[in-house]
Design a protein that fits this description.
The structure is a homodimer.
Chain A lengths: L5 E5 L4 H13 L5 E4 L8 H7 L3 H5 L2 E3 L2 H4 L5 E5 L10 E2 L1 H13 L4 E5 L8 H4 L4 E3 L12 H16 L7 E2 L9 H18 L8 H13 L5 H24 L2
Parallel strand pairs in A: 1-2, 1-6, 2-3, 4-6, 4-7, 5-7
Protein name (chains A, B): tRNA (cytidine/uridine-2'-O-)-methyltransferase TrmJ
Function (chains A, B): Catalyzes the formation of 2'O-methylated cytidine (Cm32) or 2'O-methylated uridine (Um32) at position 32 in tRNA.
Family (chains A, B): Belongs to the class IV-like SAM-binding methyltransferase superfamily. RNA methyltransferase TrmH family.
Chain lengths: ~250, ~250
């Protein structure tokens, strides 16, 4: 897998946000963390605690005095910002940025994303270092993202862009366990035999649609072989108990 | 805009995570926050501070004693989990789940997502309340997400899905017909009462897992209200015929 984008935190104010950002990075396979002019005491216990196992990303962080130095080795830079900075730049969403990053990776290009201080965001002098602005589409009435959550969304889209995602709607248990239609048919016949006997299907002109509806709901459940056995057991027990009780009362 | 999914935090342990989750919700236009058995002191200053302007989502949270009560009015429920719970369920990614939610919204269906406690995650008895599992594709070597960050990714994909692209999945039947979890619970109790009486569940130490597995297979079927009535009728007829026959033979 590609090393992905460098995550560049410009003048971060809260050291626990550095730890939480590192965690969000490692969740998505990213490890290149860069800090521009962090506070002298940034490497605190709170930062390590917030990293929650992603310590190596925090401890491996590279420190720079200026944004220009932090991006010096990169070919392509995005700047995260929610506000219009009166600067003419193309704007990506995290998803379109991730697609572009994937293209750059194939070309062996190095790239990174700038994130501003918690309260103020990136300044124009930082943003001018970037080729492109990336803005997360969010509720226009409440769009302020926590720094680490902004890092998470950029890193997440990068990881998803590499795919493959989990197969859509795959089962949490081997789908090979799913019953054959023959086993299902066997249960349907067992159930319908008993429903005929007990009179549930006694109205002849309604029987076909009732049978179809009953079969349909079980078809939809993707039953496993074991579950079909369980359903056989349920019907069998309800019925044999009925017979046992019948005999018991004679 | 649609109200989107209810966000249901099951037994949350840290009140600041409730606040951070509320912030992530409002960032993405969500406001229906539900808490199952939170700690008595959950509504703390830390929760409000972490909400950082999303106070109204925290203050509007609905409190429930059980997961079943929290989902009673919903037609469709997802459970977030990273682990295979040995339960056969379809699995969505946040993106495929969001596409399905958009589809349900168009049909006026109510839905929600369950999130487990920080350390332990959801228990099987919570997950069985859900139709579908949702798992975030992440770095397999480091996939543990902070609770609020998991909420953010689900809410973010929901918000992004409301773009122009068409929903990816369609139910062949109007999902508005899908039974509420309350109706489903009524059938489960009816069925289990009869299975207790007829002895199918007589082995005490196997009963909980058998009940869970039976409930799970019906949960997965996305039963309509009419189909739940049909199942009530099936059980009722099998049982009353048994009694009628019992009487008939005295």
């Amino acid at each position: 897998m590609s090393s992905g984008p460098a995550i560049i935190l410009v003048r971060p104010q809260l050291s626990e946000n550095i730890g939480t950002a590192a965690r969000a990075m490692l969740n998505n396979g990213l490890t290149d963390l860069r800090l521009v002019a962090p506070k002298p005491d940034w490497l605190s216990d709170r930062a390590i605690a917030a990293a929650s196992g992603a310590d190596r990303v925090v401890l491996g962080a590279k420190i720079f005095d200026t944004t220009a130095e932090a991006v010096a080795d990169l070919n392509r830079v995005w700047a995260t910002t929610a506000r219009n900075r009166f600067m003419v730049k193309p704007v990506d969403t995290p998803r379109t940025a991730a697609a572009a990053m994937l293209d750059l990776t194939a070309q062996g290009v190095k790239f990174g994303v700038l994130f501003g201080p918690e309260r103020t965001g990136l300044e124009n002098d930082d943003i001018v270092q970037a080729d492109t602005v990336v803005t997360v589409p969010l509720n226009p009435d409440y769009s302020s993202l926590n720094l680490a959550q902004c890092v998470l969304l950029i890193a997440y889209e990068w990881y998803q862009a590499q795919g493959p995602e989990l197969p859509e709607r795959h089962m949490t248990k081997g789908a090979a366990d799913i019953a054959t239609k023959e086993k299902l048919e066997g249960f349907f016949q067992h159930l319908e035999r008993e429903l005929d006997e007990c009179g549930f299907l006694r109205i002849a002109d309604k029987r076909p649609v009732m049978v179809r509806n009953i079969r349909n709901l079980f078809q939809r459940a993707h039953l496993t072989g074991q579950e079909v056995q369980t359903l056989h057991g349920i019907v069998h027990e309800l019925v044999t108990y009925r017979h046992r009780k019948g005999q018991g009362t004679t």
